[in-house]
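Dear all,

This email documents one entry for the complex benchmark we are building for the journal club exercise. For each entry we list the sequence lines for every component of the assembly. Then comes the predicted three-dimensional structure of the complex as a token string, followed by one or two observations. Please use this as the template for your own entries, and keep the labels exactly as they appear.
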Amino acid sequence: MANRKIDRPNSLDMPFLCEIAGGSVQLIRARWLVGLLLLAATAIGSNLKGLSLQERPLYLIGAGILLYNAALSFFLQRLNPQDRLACEIRTRNIVLIQVAFDWLSMTAFLHFTGGIRSSAIPLILTHVFITALIMSRWLTFLFIFVDVGTLGGIALLERAHILPHYDMIAAAESAIYTDLLFIVSRLAFVTIIAFVIGFVMTSVMIRHQERDSRTFSLLQAAQTISATLDIQALVDNLTQSITQSLKAHGATVRLIDESTGRLVLESSYGLSEDFLRKSPLELTLRAIETEVLTAPPLVVNECDQDDRIQYHEAVREEGIRSMVTVPLRWLGKPKGILSVYARRPKYFSPANADLVTKIASIASTALENATSYRILQQQDSERARFVRIVTHELRSPVAGAQSLVRTMVRGLVGEFEDRQFELIERVSMRLDQLKSLIDDLLALASGRMEDLTKPFEWIALQPYLQELVDRLQPEAASKQIQLKLDAPTDLLYVQATEEGLARIFDNLLGNALKYTPAGGRVSIVLHEEQGKVEVRVVDTGIGIPLSDQPHIWDEFYRARNVRQAGILGTGLGLSIVKALVDQFGWLITAESKEGEGSTFTLILPADFNSHAPSGRSGGAEKEEAHKTDEC
Amino acid sequence: MAKILIIDDDPDIVTSARLSLEAAGHAVVEAHNGTEGLEKIKAEKPDLIILDVMMDTTTEGFQLTLQLRSPDPTSEYKDFLETPILMLTSIHSTTPLRFGPTEDYLPVDEFVDKPLDPDELVNKVEALLS
């Protein structure tokens, strides 16, 4: 049963508390009206014939209501919803103060308007109504007792002449207020009506609250489940989130192993190792599961008495009393089952079972996506493997042919006529082109092959880039290009593989030098901001035409101006860069203006100094020492 | 003038290397796999060895190198512990990286990239011999 106690600091209850605060605002508005109405009614009533009003007390009650309402309104406005704890405590205090003052003013009002004969007695029902809206059932019943008790108290005190009795309607003045039967019958009817209203209202509220909480659970589960494309993480999130949102004992996911047709336990949450061991991890499809795979959802209300349960002993030892099982289906086929276990019998109401079904359906969609994603990744990797094998096989003949041609160009097998020499040189050039194409293809394929990637390591950027700049300096000088590195002195570390890093920067700097005419400038600018490193490769080269810019990362794409200028290239360099940048989880953007130059900006997460090799080994030693202590 | 043994299973590479080295005045002996290479080393006693990384198996070149450089005093190749080795590699055109173990790991003296450049090969060979 959903609970609406206000003193439970729980994330689910927090919005509800602030709702009460919101409700209080409405109550305050209503109370202004009540106070003013009371004052006005007293003013009018005092001039009406036949009414004998206790004017002064009634005016005082009206003024009192307005006064404490003003105070409450002041405190409510100072409530800061950002500060959750303070919000909770103050909301509770304000609610209690309201209740106390309302009770006091109602008591006084009832007394001065005729006690047990008061025409204002139905006001008690209004109070019950409001209480049921914002409090739990038992608190509402408590308030009914207090309200009716107060009325009874006033009646008895008046009957015993301890309190004076005032009759509002002069003509009806009688001593009936001293008649015990009259008092009891009036109290009895008020009590019955109050309890009926209290019960019905709180039932509606409980249902509403349960639905709210289910919607919230569904949303939360959907969010958790669809947060990953990794199948294992996904089923782990599923068992955890469904157990938590249903406040159940535990949950398991079993998926059908396509090759054996068996259900294999993929994930469990909340269940003891003992239980999992006793109920075998691999099951052939039992009757219950076959049923479940076709007709969902299956609810077992009493595990002890259900012969569809196979491991009665394990279930009993785990304390499981009821369970619900629903299928996980995707691509039009049953793929597995989700089971949720509870330690109470009949825990899975139709509404709860429905929630499990809905979450299972969300999980099925997420699992379908994750499966498709995995297939795509495998295909990509296989294609890359194929390209890699092919390119390896292509390299040898090209290298052999080019080696032979170079001996000819060098004149080691005799002199050629001019025309012959020219043709051999052209062959040599084409072979060079072919080789760089093969190398680029190989690099691209390697970048996309997961099993080829080495584990990432922390690499200091500055020494690496300095070495690269030094290495390229002769080439830059021969082209009369000014090449420089602009970086902070504090070392910046990034996570990458050395090979990957080298390919990225060799390509970016290689391009910058290649496409920058004599007299130009190429620079690498490095700076760190809020845990991110920005590396910009800036050149004053020929730039990329605007219409070509969206395609620069495409394989084999070469910009118009580069082709027209007859600059050799494969159109794979930037594709290689992009593949690696994606693999490292970095970002790369390009800005360019034709004829003015290009800037490639890499954004990567980084660390200052903290991942120097010495720091890391220190940590490892500590961990090692800790382990030894334990032994 | 030195005697150079070239061990490579690619006849075109062998021919190119032979042409370049003979033009520079060296004598060239060839072998086409690791086993033949080891036999020729003992028989010909070369002054320098040019070795391909990958032959029948991807690690044949490495294994041969490790045998030649074995510190074991009873090794049958102990006479060649100091013989310079020039390794032929396939490297990426735009990066200085090598596919395979690095210089720190592999006990060879110098690397030459395929396709062979006659002048580069001769320069590196002569630097090792001097």
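Observations: Chain B has four helices and five strands. Chain B touches chain A through 23 residues (CB under 8 Å).
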